[in-house]
Amino acid sequence: xxxxxxxxxxxxxxxxxxxxxxxxxxxxxxxxxxxxxxxxxxxxxxxxxxxxxxxxxxxxxxxxxxxxxxxxxxxxxxxxxxxxxxxxxxxxxxxxxxxxxxxxxxxxxxxxxxxxxxxxxxxxxxxxxxxxxxxxxxxxxxxxxxxxxxxxxxxxxxxxxxxxxx
Amino acid sequence: xxxxxxxxxxxxxxxxxxxxxxxxxxxxxxxxxxxxxxxxxxxxxxxxxxxxxxxxxxxxxxxxxxxxxxxxxxxxxxxxxxxxxxxxxxxxxxxxxxxxxxxxxxxxxxxxxxxxxxxxxxxxxxxxxxxxxxxxxxxxxxxxxxxxxxxxxxxxxxxxxxxxxx
Lengths: 166, 166
Known about the structure:
2 copies of one chain form a homodimer.
Chain A: E1 3-4, E2 6-8, H1 11-14, E3 18-21, E4 29-32, E5 37-40, E6 54-62, E7 70-76, E8 82-86, E9 92-97, E10 108-112, E11 117-120, E12 125-126, E13 130-131, E14 136-144, E15 151-161
Parallel strand pairs in A: 1-15, 2-10
Antiparallel strand pairs in A: 3-11, 4-5, 6-14, 7-15, 8-11, 8-14, 9-10, 9-12, 9-13
């Protein structure tokens, strides 16, 4: 039984899969509004306009998942990016694999504990939302428009995730 | 001395200015992820693609403003919408006036206390971020690209805002 370890979410570790969305992740920033506000600029590549698409803003309300968790499938959106930004600081899990034909040996898992968001690049394999502890709302920015923008794939070798905090 | 009253933020009251972003504002919603998640769909008109524009995702970190507050100016973005979603549940103020030539008699103010976001429609006059109580982060979705997308206008008759909680 393979157990996937949980990694901390860093911009470097997540770069093959998309963007980490947090204020202090090295983005350009500057003062606006007569010095009362810092703008952390352009934190994610919002890639929603292909084939007549447009940007959607949604809220996902996720039931909490109780560890230990077994992964049985991943999904991807071939036509656009999808960003998740938690509207709380409750922890959640991010499970990804690189774009292209799914290689189960390359699946990685991240535990997010600081309220950071993630933006899955177009075509990046990822697990559906894995909220922890309590019902949690996430702002989700993805693509609407024509075309089939969801592929799901069952894992040939289901994986267990390391239990957070253990 | 004119004092502008603070209104509660409802979708109906805010409709002339843009969208209220909250899960229960009457949006279409449905279950996804095998029933573990509710998708509240397409909560704001993200209008960022005019004249070669694209969608930007940013974080604004606002210093708190201490009431009583005097309004001296408003601004607007003629080329795109701008959405603010608080990443905390601290209260903040929203001050707006309808698109078109600025009519100071039509300025309205809303106090947001429940973590809701707002999306200013393209060209809607609004005051820069007015966080309250403590430094507060907001996710901001606006337009990047060519063209001049900021107009500021001083008020001929500066206004005071009602003090929250009084």
